Amino acid sequence: MPLKYFIVHAHHEPASFNGAMTRRALADLTAAGHEVKVSDLYTMGFDPVSDRRNFTTVANPAFLKQQNEERHATEHNGFAPDIAAEMDKLAWCDVLVFQFPLWWFSIPAILKGWVDRVLAAGRIYGGGKWYSNGFGVGKRAMVSMTTGGPEAMYRQDCLEPPMETLLVPIEHGVFWFNGFSVLPAFIAWSAAHGTDADRHVTLDRYAAHLLAHTGTPGRPPLNLADYPPPNFARKTT
Amino acid sequence: MPLKYFIVHAHHEPASFNGAMTRRALADLTAAGHEVKVSDLYTMGFDPVSDRRNFTTVANPAFLKQQNEERHATEHNGFAPDIAAEMDKLAWCDVLVFQFPLWWFSIPAILKGWVDRVLAAGRIYGGGKWYSNGFGVGKRAMVSMTTGGPEAMYRQDCLEPPMETLLVPIEHGVFWFNGFSVLPAFIAWSAAHGTDADRHVTLDRYAAHLLAHTGTPGRPPLNLADYPPPNFARKTT
């Protein structure tokens, strides 16, 4: 079954390995019959700063409470065109892919700003819409990243923080929170330090990874029924 | 002994609780004889997008490899004025404070961009300069944040990711990596949902927290001698 992929791409150099990965994903997914949209944030000049610029409406001109303005904009069709366009792509897709280089053990600011601005209260989350009742239920999401260091440096009890910890704010905090099931991350370890032959192998592995997971369900978001209010601690039955 | 504090402040609403926290820190630390500089990123119009705009110099016009450009700029005094000014404040300070609202389980994009752009290879890290040999050795750093949810929601086995995990990319990945010792984080849980009286109590607690830790050493960065190359795994002796 043909799928709709939305790749949010966050690298400033088109000739980078990140650029090669997104071009490869576009080519191979399209060749396999899927549809792909790419938001190339640097090329678009995407503005990552979240404030009143997100809106064409104003709920309270005296005090900027972002979530209130987001809910107001949701009700009054008041999102700025750059944000509304990203929301439409998010609603359209079956699979969301974040493509980025790991900068300071997390996503680059331009991608963080996409998260801060596009994932707005009202339109995307809130009012009971989160995790197993989230916007992304029925959709899947995936990290595709490059790192500076080799895999061995991101393990438990190493100098650097472990990768499983670094993925939590993205895979749990962004994907699961919003209802997306999480496909296995693809990590191009130390991409800049290999040879061209190494990089061709990695590109082949990335294309194979994408195609291998067209039909896999991914890890579903936490089930709200297992985490009752008020404190949302896991039920011990 | 008087100390030099550098608060990097990342909130879009001056009348927010984050704003009140930074004003209180400025007032009480100054009253106690310390010096304080604040980079109020929204008010400054700080640009969080990292690319060639960071530099007045160019090492390679054909291919943007950020760390190479950073090392080149370090050697040729080639950082853009907005970045150079932040580097100078970082060098000046004894204690670095990140003041922010937790957005999507991490720092707002405008602060992530400060990290991405200011903490440049060559000038700040690299060439053996990291962790116990880092730029920040002898300095301390501290998180001061507000959250949307109450403390009970950020524990292990809750719906939301645990706070100790969310702090890793900042306290380990940014502070420790660059040699800073880490002071205990101050977390204003669910600041927006309390009463004015609650918020006054929290501001008093924040001021007391800052003053209680003027003389405490903090948790020192990992010792490079315990994590030998090539894989930097902890020695088991």
Structural write-up:
The structure is a homodimer of 237-residue chains. The first copy, chain A, has helices at 17-31, 41-44, 66-75, 81-92, 109-118, 163-176, 196-212; strands spanning 4-9, 35-40, 95-101, 140-146, 181-182, 186-188. In chain A, strands 1, 2, 3, 4, 5 and 6 form a six-stranded parallel β-sheet that branches. In chain A, helix 5 links the parallel strand 3 (95-101) and strand 4 (140-146). The mean pLDDT of chain A is 97. Chain A has seven helices and six strands; from the N terminus they run βαβαααβαβαββα. By secondary structure, chain A is an alpha/beta fold. Chain A has a single domain, classed as Flavodoxin domain (Rossmann fold). At the A-B interface, helix 5 and helix 6 of A face helix 5 and helix 6 of B.
Largest interface: A-B, 54 and 54 residues
Number of helices of chain A: 7
What string gives the helices and strands of chain A in order? Answer: EHEHHHEHEHEEH
The average pLDDT of chain A is: 97
Percentage of residues in DSSP E strands of chain A: 5-15%
Domain count of chain A: 1
Q: From the structure provided, what is the oligomeric state, counting identical versus distinct chains?
A: homodimer
The top level CATH class name of chain A? Alpha Beta
Rg for CA atoms of chain A: 19 Å
As for the CATH topology of chain A, it is Rossmann fold
Helix content of chain A: 25-40%
Named CATH architecture of chain A: 3-Layer(aba) Sandwich
Helix/strand class of chain A: alpha/beta
- Largest beta-sheet characterization of chain A: 6 strands, parallel
CATH superfamily of chain A: Flavodoxin domain
Number of strands of chain A: 6
Straight-line distance between termini of chain A: 40 Å
Which parts of chain A are unreliable, with pLDDT below 50 for 5 consecutive residues or more?
Answer: none
